Amino acid sequence: MVIDYSVTPPTKEFLVNPDYLKDYQKIYRGRGQELMKQEEWTAEMFIDFLEKEEIDIAVIKARDIETTLKRKIPNEACAELVKKYPKKLIGMAGVDPFKGKAAVQELEYAIKDLGLKGVNLWPYEYNIYAHDRTYYPIYEKCQELGAIVSIETSIHFNRAVRMDLCRPLYLDYVAVDFPNLTLVGSTPGWPWVAELMGVAWRHPKVYIATSVVRPKHFGNPISGYETLIQFGNTILQDRIIYGSGWPALPMKRGAEEIRVLPLKEDVKAKWLYHNAAKLFGLE
C-alpha cells in the first residue's frame, strides 16, 4: 500500500502556480506531461489516475500566498475534493501568515469545520524563515488543535529570494519552541540532509517527507542523501514518509524506486504507507 504525501490535483482550482515556478519547469523538464491538457481534467479523472498509479491515498494541499505572490488555492476547494473522495484523499490547509488573526481564524475553520488535517507552509514563498515570529500564532493554533505543520526544508529554485530560507536548521527552532507540535520537513533536506536528520533525531514529533526527489538518488553514495538511508533505515525508520511531488515526478515510479533502495523490507513498507498512516491517525 502507498500513501503519497505530495500530490497536486490537476483541476482548475489548484492551477494557480506563481511565475517563479517556471524555474522548476526547466529543472523538471519533460515530466508531468499529464498536465499539458490540464483544463480537461475532472476530479473523477484524477481519482482514476491515482488508481492507475497504484496510490491508495494522496495528500493534497491548499495554499495561501496572496500577500507575497497574489495566489491562493482555497481551503474549500481542497476540502470539497476530500469530502467527495474521503477514502482516497487527505487534505492540508493553506493560510497566509501575514494575515495575522485572520490567518489563525481561517486555520481553525479549515481544521474544525472543513476537516483538513494541518497547514502547508513554504518559507521561500513568504520570504521569511520558518522560525520567524510571524508564523508563531499559526504554530500555536496547530499545537492546540493537534494539527500538522508541513514546511519546505530543502533547496528551492526561486532565485529572487535567498536559498537558505528553507534550511532545516530553522525547523529546530520551531520544534524547541513548540515541543508538542507535529512537524513534517518536506523535501528531504538537500544540501542540508544531515542537518534535517539531526533535527528529526532531536525531536520525536518531526517527520521527513521525500517529495520532489527521485528516490533512486537516495541510494547513490555520492548524492548527499547517505544519512537519509542510514538513519531512515534505523533510528528514524518510523518517521520517513513518501511523497512524489506529482506532477513534477511520477507517483508510481517513485514508489517503485523506494522498493529497491537498500532498506529493510519492513522499513520500505513504513516509508510507503505505515508512517504516513500513523501521522494522519489511520492506524
Q: What portion of residues is helical?
A: 25-40%
Main-sheet strand order equals 6-7-8-9-10
Given the helix and strand composition, which structural class is it? alpha/beta
Average pLDDT works out at: 92
How much β-strand is present in the residues?
Answer: 5-15%
Which fold name fills CATH's third level, the topology? TIM Barrel
Shape: globular
Give the distance, in angstroms, between the N- and C-terminal Cα atoms.
Answer: 13 Å
Q: Can you count the helices?
A: 12
What's the number of structural domains?
A: 1
Tell me the CATH architecture. Answer: Alpha-Beta Barrel
CATH superfamily, by name, is Metal-dependent hydrolases
* Sheet of most strands: 5 strands, parallel
Which CATH class? Alpha Beta
C-alpha Rg (nearest Å): 17 Å
Q: How many DSSP E strands?
A: 10
**Low-pLDDT windows of residues:** none
Helix/strand order: EHHEEHEHEHEHHEHEHEHEHH
